[in-house]
Each structure stands twice: as C-alpha cells, then as structure tokens.
Amino acid sequence: MTADHRTAALPAPASRDAAPLTPNQARLWFGERLHPGHPGHVVQRALALHGPPDVPALRRTLHLLTERHDILRTVYRGTAAGPRQRALPTVPDVLHTAGDHPGGPDEWIRQIRHRPFDLETGPVLRWDLLRTGASEHVLLLTVHHIAFDGVSMRLLFDELATAYAAFHHGTPPQLPPAPSFLDFARRTAGTRQADGALAYWTAALAGAGAAPALPHDFAPAGRGSGRAHARTFRVPDPARARLAALARQERCSPFMATLALFAALLCSCAAARDVVVAIPVAERAAPEHRRLVGFLVNLAPARVACAPHDTLPDLLARTREAVLGAAEHPLPYQQAVAAARTSGPGTGLVRAAFDLHPAPRTPRLPGLDVTERPVHPVATRFEVELHVQQRGDAWDGTFLVSADLFEADAADALADLFVALADRWTADPGLPLTAVEDGAHPEEDDA
User: Fold this and answer.
1) Taking the CB of residue 148, how many other CB atoms lie within 10 A of it?
2) pLDDT at 6
3) The whole model's pTM is what?
4) Are 429 and 312 contacting, i.e. CB atoms less than 8 angstroms apart?
C-alpha cells in the first residue's frame, strides 16, 4: 500500500519487542495447545452483500485495518519464560475470494471454521468473499478468539464501513489513531490483583459441587471433541417484557435476570441447590481501552444458589449479588477456579456458560445492500451454554450442548423448558420455584 492510501492519523508503530500474553489470552493459548484447532476458539461473522462489491476497495480496507491494529497481525510462541506475542512487521494479505461453493454458503462457512489457525506463524484472522450469485456475495470474518472479543467486532466493522466508503469514493479514510494491544499487554503485565480477590473467590466457591450441569446421556470419554448440538429460539415477547420490567424493579440488568432463569433451569434439571456458571466480564473500564481491538474479556465462575422455595425476586437478588461480586473482584479465570481446588477450567466445577449481548450493527457500504447472515454455532467448550442476543425488542437465544455427552434432542428440550419457565414465572413471580416447575398455580395448591 502506498503512502497516499494511508490515513494521516495512523499511529507510530508499536515496539516490535515481544510482549507477554494477558491472563485472558494465556487461557486461550493453553486451551489451543490442549485442543489444537478447537472450533470453540474461533469467532465468525458473515454479511450478505447484495450488489457488486468494490473488491479493490475492500482489499485496501482490510489491509488498512490489519495494519492499524497490531493484534490482527500478531503471532504467538512459547519461550522458556512463557508464551510471548509479537506483531508481524509486514501486513499479510487476509482477503481470499472464491466462486460458488458446491455445498452452499452454510457448508462453506462451516469448512472455514474448521480450518485451524497456526498461532506461531499467523495470521490469526481470515476474510473470505464467496460469490453466491451474479451480484450476490457473502463476506465472512473468521478470527481466533485470542485476538478478538465482542467489542472488537463492533469497532472493526465500524472502521470497515468508514474505510470502505472512503476508498470506494477515492478519498483517504479519516480514522482516529488506533491504540496498540501489545503495548496494553506490556503495561498490564504483572499488575497486582485487587486486594481480597482470591479470598472472595475461595469463599464464594467453597463447597461447590462437581456434579454435571445436567444428567448426561453418554459417559464422558476422555478429551471432548468440542462438537455441539444447537437449538435457536426466541424468548416470547410478553415474557421478555415482564422479565425486563421485573429486572428494573429489582435493580437488575437484563443479563442478571436472564442468568437467574438459566440458573433456575439448570438447578431444576439437575436437582441441585446451586450451579456455577461461567460468565463474561469485560475489562474495558478505562476510557483508553474502549477503542482497543483485542481480547479483553475474562470469564468468572459465578455461583448462583436456587432454593426450592425461592420466588423469582429472591433469585434475582441472589444472582445480582453473584454478578456484582464477580465484577468487583477481578481475578483471572484459572486462578478463581483454582481457588476452589477443582480439577481445572471447563471441567469439574464449571460446566455451564452464559452470555447476553446486543446484536452487532450491520455496516452500511456504498453501492451495496448489506444484511446479517446467521452463523450457526457448532462448538462448545462446556457441557451446556446459553447465548442470548438482543435485537431491538426481540431476544433470540441459542442453547448449545456437548455432542459428546448429550443426544441432539437435549438442546431442543432445554429451549422448550426455558421458554416455559420464563413464561410461567414472569407471569407470577411470587410463586416458589417448585410450583413453577410443576406448572402449578396458587389456587391449585389451595385445592
């Protein structure tokens, strides 16, 4: 790329000295070494492009984004002092184009997801453009999670829209300076954890059982394949509205309220009194981190107790306490889990995961009608996961269950049970959990 294609606001190159991995990155790096090519370590997003794309403008845009954000051209290598990361001095070509795929776009996306990344040689992201018709294409981003999180997705696609429009119209993109993730990793290396964090997690997880999140259909057989059965569903609008209103009344976020229902479902299915769920905790409190592309999400093993006599407000209060406690006592996931003296992350103590997040904005690209193309999940790192996406007033959920442990209909059953639980309990939040499980009503109990 010649100098006139660059923005005047590009930052000076960060130091090329190797940087340590952040604790969040180290968790994924070790996970990749244990399970090379695990599809659960991969993030994808697909856009359907209706109209002829300006491929030269797109290629220049993706080159610029990879140049601006050092984490997108970073490689990872083990050393005697531990894993280190270093940005490549040159910008790799990350756009690949293809004609029609015989298996169709969904099979094409699946095959690309299962194409492993080499963290030592890089790059750790790919952009693929598939022609699906005379003027129809799919643009697919595939990136290893070690370099990316949900906020990074929004930042990158916002910049993609700005730069593509500028290159398409023959003008230089005007983008703010991009902070360096590797500089962030160097500055935060060895940062002392908050006082009391280890003590908090030791107490919070004391006595937590290692029972399955759900009764298994199959016996565990060594290392899991990561394959998942999935079921997508929509939370009914009346139940969603009632839950949102109750959350506001109880000073809870939608995340806390939905997690409470998920915890109640797991406790009910497993006949357990509490459950430990891995939840994401963003580490972007500092203003300078809000435009940083990289992986800045920790997992926290939130423990939620569900007593049979609990009403929904009771459970919301307890879930709120667990989520706030996790946010106020940051500790790398591995250390928090180790505080309970369990066998390690993803096994033993923590067997379920939950997330709720807003749907990504669809970028506007000149000359194109752009729509989101769903990417169907195919992998899980836990026994069961629930992911909920907020798209305006609609809440779309996906249950994932490990194909190594459950029949395919387990995901369907969980989705149906969750919808029924949400509908019944939000309609009468004063009912105890046991009554909701039985589908009972107060007048039936009196009879």
Assistant:
1) 24
2) 38
3) 0.89
4) yes
Tens of pLDDT along 63-122? Answer: 999 999 999 999 999 999 899 999 999 999 999 999 888 889 999 999 999 899 999 999
Instruction: Quote the CA–CA distance of 36 and 30 in Å, as a whole number.
Output: 10
Q: How far is the C-alpha of 265 from the C-alpha of 260, rounded, in Å?
A: 9
Output the CA–CA distances (angstroms, integers) from residue 357 to 54, 234, 299, 315, 406, in the order listed.
31, 14, 15, 21, 26
Phi, psi at residue 19, to the nearest 5°? Answer: -115, 150
Confidence of residue 223 (pLDDT cuts 50, 70, 90): low
SS3 for 392? coil
Q: What is the DSSP letter of 146?
A: G
Read off φ and ψ for residue 153, nearest 5 degrees. Answer: -60, -45
Residue 174 is given by DSSP the state -
In the Cβ-directed half-sphere of 4, how many Cα atoms lie within 13 Å? Answer: 2
**HSE of 395 in the Cβ direction (CA atoms, 13 Å)?**
23
Question: Do the strands 274-282 and 352-358 form a parallel or antiparallel pair, or are they unpaired?
Answer: parallel
Task: Say if residues 69 and 14 touch (Cβ distance below 8 Å).
Answer: no
Is residue 189 a contact partner of residue 84, using CB atoms and an 8 Å limit?
Answer: no
On whether the CB atoms of residues 408 and 229 are closer than 8 A, the answer is yes
From CA 419, how far away is CA 235, in angstroms rounded? 6
**What residues contact residue 285 under an 8 Å CB cut-off, 6+ apart?**
none
In the chain, % of residues over pLDDT 90:
73
- Whether the bond between 123 and the residue before it is cis, its omega within 30 degrees of 0, is yes
CA–CA dist 228, 402 (Å, integer): 5
Closest to 322 in 3D by CA, of 151, 203, 149:
203
Helix (H) or strand (E) holding 389: strand 384-391
- 416's tokens: 């149906």
**pLDDT score recorded for residue 11:** 40
Task: Give the separation between CA 353 and CA 341, rounded to whole angstroms.
Answer: 20
Spatial neighbors of 42 by CB under 8 A, at least 6 apart, are 113, 117, 142, 143, 144, 145, 379
Say which amino acid occupies 290: R
Burial class (CB in 10 A: 0-12, 13-18, 19+), 284: middle
Q: What are the backbone angles phi and psi of residue 203, rounded to the nearest 5°?
A: -70, -40
First to last CA, the chain: 79
* Phi (first) and psi of residue 145, to 5 degrees: -60, -20
Note the helical H segments in 17-119.
Answer: 23-34, 55-68, 104-113
**Nearest in space to 355 (alpha carbons), one of 380, 377, 385, 379:** 385
Q: Which of 69, 242, 225 is nearest to 149 (CA)?
A: 69
Mean pLDDT of 20-46: 92
